[in-house]
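Before surveying the methods themselves, let us examine one representative protein, pairing a chain with its fold in token form.
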Amino acid sequence: MEVDGTMDPEGPITLRTTKFITNRLLNRRQFVLTVFHPTRANVSRSELGKKLASAYKTEAERVVVFGLKTKFGGGSSTGFGLIYDDEESQKKFEPKHRLVRSGLAEKVVRASRKLRKERKNRSKKVRGKAKTKAGEPAKKK
């Protein structure tokens, strides 16, 4: 299926979907997306999602576009697209980082990997109740 977007102020884009599969097990439609954008450097995922949603008559929130790679020399990009049937199945099957990106999940805030390892190793050096104090970062002098 081809979608033409000639009314864009930045320049025209054309979307072409290939290898279109209806995946009943995961409640989604999946496809390879080719975007032709001769006068633009690239196209945003949100804009592509809106165009695909209007083409396939669904909500823009259910459309997930990822893995976009711009061809050398510009003018076209390829990537993957998924259109989920409902929000429940999207939350169930979509990876956490893409749910955070689309605003359906909260990002888990943790200390950096190095800090977590340093804290763990400091707490190994003591026993008992002092372990909790050793887990805290060292005091600045």
Observations:
- The radius of gyration is 23 Å.
- Helices lie at 45-55, 87-93, 96-102, 113-124, 130-135.
